[in-house]
Each structure stands twice: as C-alpha cells, then as structure tokens.
Amino acid sequence: MAQTETLIVGAGLAGLRALYALREKGISAVVLEASDEIGGVWNHNRYPGARCDVESFDYSYSFSKDLEQEWRWSERYPTQPEILRYINHVADRFDLRRDVVLNARVNEAVYDEDRAVWMATTSDGRTWTANTLMLCLGQLSAPKIPSYPGQEDFGGEVIVSAMWPRRKVDFSGKRVGIIGTGSSGMQMTPVIAQTAAHLTVFQRTANYSLPAANAPLTDEEDARVKANYATRRDQIRNSPTGLGFQPGKVKTLDVSDEEREAALEKSYHRLGFGFALTFPDILLDAKANAVASDFLKRKMGERVADPVLRKKLVPNDHGFGTRRPSVDGGYFEAFARDNVELSDIREHPIVAFTPEGIRTDEKLHELDIVIFATGFDALTGALLKPRIVGRDGRTLAEKWADGPLTQLGLATAGFPNMVIVAGPGSPSVLSNVIVSIEEHADWYARMLATFRAQGIVEFEATEVAEKTWTDYVQQRAQETLYGTANSFYNGGEVAGKPRVFMPFSGGVRHYRQHLQKCADENYSGFEKRKTPAAQKSTEVHRHA
C-alpha cells in the first residue's frame, strides 16, 4: 500500500498543474492516471480536425515565464496533436512524470474516518492512501455513448470521437456516418468529407457556430504577444470568461442599427466565443439575444446555398449561447459537396442499426463507419464514475442524486479532505478552463500548506456553506438566458440526469473574489479539525 500527502486523480491539464502547485508548497503528491499516457481529454480526443476553441496563447499555463517564452505555438487555435505535445513538454520540462502512475484507473476511493485518510483502489487491485483526495477528472471527459436497437448487428466499424483509436483511420472510399453536431461533429465533418466516398451527418439539434478565423502564427505576432504576456494574462484573469474579452459597455438596443451591425460583424470575424461579449446583455436579455441570434442565423445561412438545407442547418429552437456554440473551419460549406448529406433525425428519427448501416423512418443509410460524436456526461459524469465513499458509507452519487452540492465548487459536505478542480459550482465550462484550473490548483496548494502549518488534519465543507453557494449558483444562472434551453450546462444532455444548472455563471473575476474572501477568513465555509471528527466522537462516547 503506497502513501502520499495528496492523491491526484487524473493526469490531464488539471492534474499536472495541481501536481506542480503542490510541489511548490513542499507537499508530496502522486497522480493516478487511467490511461497509458498523460494528457486527459487531449490524449483521447484524437479525431480528425480536433482543435481547441480558445486561442493557443491563452490555452496554456501561466506559472512559468520561461515556459511562456520557450514554447512556440504554430496556429491561432491549436490542434489536438500540438496541445498533446505541449502537455508532454511541460511534464518533461518540470520533471512531473516521476510522480505520475499510468495505467492506474481509480475504481473506488473510501474515506477512513478514524485516520482521516483516503484509500483509493485501482482496477488492478493496487491501493493508495493519502491525507487529501484531489479530483482532476475533467468537465467533458466522460463520453456519452448511445445505444440503438440492432447496434451490435452493424457490420462496419463504430468509433467514439472521445475515444478515438491511435491508429490512422482511413476514410478513403468509405461511407461514413457522423451522429452528433456539437463541437466534435462540426470540427470533423469538413475534414472527413475531403476523403470519404460519402458522408452522412445525423443531426438532432442544429448548432450555432462562428468561423474559427484560424491562421498560422507569424514570428512577429509570436514576439508581440510574448513581449506583453504579463499584461495579456492579467486581462484574461480579470475578464468574465478567461478569454481576455471585456463586454461592450453599451447595451445591444441602445445603439443605432448601423453601429450594432458593424460591431457584430467585427466580432463575428475575429472573436469566436467572444462574440457573446460584443454587447453586455446578449446572454442576459431575451430581446438582445434575439438580435444577436438573428445576425448569426443570417451569417450561417449565407454559407449554405440550398434553401431547404439552410432551414435545417440554421438553429431555430434556442438562442445563441444558451447551449454551447461552436467555432468551425468550413462546416457549413462542407454540405455543398456532392458526397455530403444531412439526415435530420428530429424529422426522421433513427429506428435501428442494421448490418448494412443506419435506418431512419425515412430510409436506410448504407455505411462502412459510424462515428459517435455525441458528447459527454458533462461536469458530474467523470466525478461519479469511480465509487467515492465519504462519511457513514455514503457515496458521492447518493449525495448528488438531485444535483451537485458544493462549497464554492471546491468541496462537498460529508467528504472530508476531498477537493475538486474546476468542477460544478465553479466557472469551469463557462470559462477558459485552463484559467480556472490554475486558479484552483494554486488556491488548494496555499490552503493545504496553511492547514499543515496550523496542524489541521481534517477539513470539510459545511452543509450551510454548500447550500448557500449552490443556491447562489442557481440565482446567478436565473439572471441569464441559460435556463431557456436544454444543454449540458443544466443536465439536459443525459436522460434522467437532474436538471440543475451546474457551472457558476458570475464570471472568472467575480468568482476569484469569493475564493479570496474564503481564504482571507481562514477558509470560511470549512470546518477545520486538529483531531478527526470520528475520534472526537469516540472520546465523547467513552467519557459519557
């Protein structure tokens, strides 16, 4: 049985960053990773066209000035292979691998109340104990895999985009079907269309998308950013989303039609997700959102010549930003190709898989390869995969049966000495997640170092604090338009999942102020003990 001060689960961007932060505070840690490679989602999501929708300069660690200057990104939006190379470079550059254990999938973690330690068991039977359990399992990392009648009878190959094989998949001469039109489906469609004999895109929900405006990074731009990186990082940390964009000061309907059109046009061609911040009320006011949505519908429609196809590809059942939008590189244009077909499965649902392909209630689509680009059980899915057992034998799945409850998105009552990085109750998926990861990693490292100095052996979120924060997360969400659509923000992506808005929508900067207040008040909202509560209970009982 191996021991360490902190056990980190997951060796993606969060787990590696947490390891670095803890080391800086002199706290020993071990990272357990299920895969045989580090990288998290960027290790698994190897599908054609996989690319980050945050600019490369900003989707990177800020803890090392030398690293910032040394690493050279090649494109404005980095591809999956480049991000994975970056992650591996960081692991080597800072000697992180020596504390990472690969092929160590955590099946169960149980809290020992008497000793105030966590015991984690991996799928091969190994056991680890630690004072603190840190969950770095990702927000979009538990693939959602559909099950259709006859699926096992399909004679071709089935591939899940989030579990893409490491071998090269050759689409030449193949009839390919993609189920799903979120970011993954929209990114891979134009790439696969170039070589497939025929491509059928099965769409349930039309999605908003903006052009990625991707381009190679010139030496001049690289030098310019690196000369002012500190300023850029500061702008990012103090922006609402961690993207560096500040909302416009004037409301959508308070400017002339000409000014509004010019502002939206400028954002559309450059800002990607930042389009939502062109005006401050786009995600807050229904009339403002309708204006922005209509603009995007018009722009998307201009990219589709066929009027029948245009009506199907342009969303009409939700406002822009109420579900996660995409940025794409030629998605709509791909449907102008003779070998690309759209199957609207809301109009003509999938009935079953057959040995030959997929049958809808309209026709049989003969296919050689089917790709599930069906997204994830977001925010809570990966956290609830292992069996995590807290006080009194209660599991995290039981505790969160009606939705996640957290104190500041950091911890949950009944699970002492357990923390979560960039999970529900924090900005997470509503932010440039690497900004949120770094915020949490450094905050936790300071907290654990403080507790060690104070002789604290057990800390636990209080029920009052987690209820107050969870209610506040819902209150802030109700001030927005997020509740007007089903999305992975509110559990709408999985049948039977509690419909609770999960990320904190109040912004990165505002969230940091809450973190700072908590720390300044000696970590308010947490009960801190120098003796485990179970031992105190035993003492009281013995002397009664």
From TrEMBL:
Q: Per its UniProt entry, which superkingdom is the organism in? A: Bacteria
- Claim: Flavoprotein is one of the keywords in the record: yes
The Swiss-Prot or TrEMBL record lists the needed cofactor(s) as: FAD
Any one Gene Ontology MF annotation carried by this entry is: NADP binding
Does Signal count among this protein's keywords? no
**Record keywords, A-Z:** FAD, Flavoprotein, Monooxygenase, NADP, Oxidoreductase
Against Pfam families, the record matches this protein to:
Pyr_redox_3
InterPro entries in UniProt = FAD-binding_Monooxygenases, FAD/NAD-bd_sf, Flavin_mOase
The Swiss-Prot or TrEMBL record describes its family as follows: Belongs to the FAD-binding monooxygenase family.
Q: Which PANTHER family match?
A: L-ORNITHINE N(5)-MONOOXYGENASE-RELATED
Annotated protein name in UniProt: NAD(P)/FAD-dependent oxidoreductase
